[in-house]
Structure formats: C-alpha cells, structure tokens
Amino acid sequence: MKWHPDKNPSNKKEVEVNFKRISEAYEA
Q: Which residues form a coiled coil (predicted)?
C-alpha cells in the first residue's frame, strides 16, 4: 500500500495525513 506510514518513514507526517484521508474515503 503506497501511503501506509510504515512504508514511508522519511515523510511520516505527510503519509499519515494521506493515509487517514484515503481510509476515510474508502469507509464512506
């Protein structure tokens, strides 16, 4: 998974934001 925080430790904050947004989109 592209935006998973564990896969991108260098820009973790940005990834967390994107991951959260994507997760919410899938739940909707």
A: none
